[in-house]
Amino acid sequence: MKKPFNLSDDEYQFWKSYILDECIFDLGHLTACKHTFKHPERNESYTLYITFSHHVFTRSPSVEEDYDPDQIYPFPNEDLRLFDEVRYELSHHLPAIIASLPEQFCYHGGYSRYCSCKVVMANGMEVDYQVVYRVWKARGKMRFHVESAYPLKERLGRVKKVSFWVICFNLATGKALPKPAAK
What we know:
mainly beta, 6-stranded mixed β-sheet, single chain, Heat shock protein C, 12 strands
């Protein structure tokens, strides 16, 4: 399959379907995409090139977990990850989350990463969904890579909100990205 974009990094731009126990899990919703966001009050617009890591539909095995080798998601490096149906189901919300980033709650996730969460499942159940992404600019393109996404076991405590628009403005103009508050 041809890559959707000519990007200077080696992030995967599409994921092949995964087969487990004769079930086919389509990963087409995680194909790289481009979104342009227009600021509602200022004459600013930002085009983000978005890619997704396999960590949004896989998980690390626990230390003493006994797992079926067929659960291992085939990835060409030493990153042993198991296909996770819960993460896979939640990952279907990522395109809508990405498309509505200005309305999402963004906050510092540490290590210069930003996060947003909260999703309502089809059954009406609300899930705190941690979406971890990093941003950078390369060859004039604003890159946005979703490194991981998973349900939180418990709600986060107080976190400092970060404006999506400040992230974009600083990235576009070469200014330092917002940093978390000192502890």
